[in-house]
Fold:
Amino acid sequence: MSVIDLELDPFYGAFIDGKFDTDARNRAAASDPATGEHLADVASCDAADVDRAVSAAAAAFESWGRTLPEERSRALHRLADLIEADAERLARIDSRDVGRHIREMREDYRMAVEQFRYFASIVLAHEDFGRPIPGGYSIAKRVPLGVCGQIIPWNDPVVMLAFKLAPALAAGNTVVLKPDVNASLATLEICKHLSAVLPPGVVNVVPGTGTEVGTAISGHPGVRKLAFTGSTEVGRLIAEAAAQRLIPATLELGGKSPNIVFPDIDDLDAVVADATAAVVVCNGQSCLAGTRLFVHEDIYDEFVRRLVEHFAGLVVGAPLDEDTDVSCMISARQGERVLAYIETGRAEGARLLHGGKRLAVDGCPTGYFIEPTIFEATATMRIAQEEIFGPVLTVIRWNDYETMIAEANGTRYGLASGIYTSNLNSALETADRLEAGSVWINHYANLHGGTPFGGFKDSGLGREYCRETLNAYSQLKSITIHTAAEKDS
Ligand code: NAP
Ligand code: MG
Structure:
């Protein structure tokens, strides 16, 4: 598909107070990581732009913060409809901008639309509550926080956007959001849909780098809440900025999730396929990827044989090719980082069972296509401890249950986990023992509206995609009415 069919603008300025800036002192090129083709220019904003955005959001909050949930719900449903109607084009923009394959990007749009509809629906039941007290009545109201500063990464642009915007807007807040420099285009295109549905200033998008725009958002005195998805290292900086100003922060950070195969599974091939999808999703550039596969000794040899066979059958190809299973890394930097981890694995004595190389794909001269890779490793090796963010799986053999649980919990992360077994007791006992925000039994990454998502330990703070998220975007105010019906009370 040519760039013309994507209907991109040649230049995207910041989206502030319902309008795109038409000029910018600094611009950065957005390009297709697979082909190197230039897609559009995007403003590289600075602290002064963030300041204008926060002012616009603060002004918009005066009225948006007082709207009824019904009005916000209608706006979010309309936004979901507009994004759904434009999803194929937007998915192609993301596919070209970030290098992920088109079938996956369509799935991301389905999930993002579901996210807007989910919060549009549950906000109607997010009641205030009250109760009689001696001599009166007390009401506890949920009120919005104000301007929320949100910073998102490049791996799932539209899912990240929806996870951040939908609950913030449903709860009555206004937003200043920074997309990732490597993945701004679809977000800026979606601003056109936002302006059709929301009053000016309710959502402002300020593209630019983390060091310039990100720090200006996290340190701005007008911002009343921070929400961040990305690395644990930057997450810590965001938490520090929030602590300085005593504002809440929700953080969705890295992962190194265990995926555990018991010997009693009944369909080995189905588990092989599911465990493969768990690690190659987003070309492995996913915080929730199931990157540490614990396989029980009794089935180990046969399981690993079929796993290698399955990996060998994956189609590594161009992002817009419908047959592609694994596509290209977001950037040369990320590609080199993944290749360096593969070298680390070899150097520390892990056994390479499949893959390990950069592949060439026709028509994609600049892309870093990394062969889906399997290492047999031990749990303490670096490649089994650190987040690689590429299609690299470490397989770990287990026999003793307690040792396996200790190893599964033996990283600094605690985002997600998987279990494959036909025994309900093993499944539930193991689910209880795992230090992870999500446990998926017999189907990895089984995420739906209303299933809380977020991390234990260094994987973050707070939960997204659930009712609790609305609480995290609001605060309680109690109003106590003294009717003097009872004297001296
Ligand atoms: P990152 O540095 O944490 O970036 C995430 C977002 O934070 C980007 O929008 C980034 O801006 C911004 N940012 C960077 N420094 C900031 C600062 N000091 N203050 C405020 N915002 C700041 O992640 P990355 O460099 O893209 O990836 C590095 C590693 O992080 C990956 O290899 C992976 O291990 C992990 N990661 C995890 C997730 C996840 O979903 N949990 C997502 C992405 C990455 P820029 O636009 O300038 O980058
Ligand atoms: Mg790009």
Notes: Residues 151-155, 178, 180-181, 209-211, 214-215, 218, 229-231, 234, 237, 252-254, 287, 387, 389 surround NAP (ligand 1) (CB under 6 Å). The mean pLDDT is 96. Residues 129 and 140 are 5 Å apart (CA to CA).
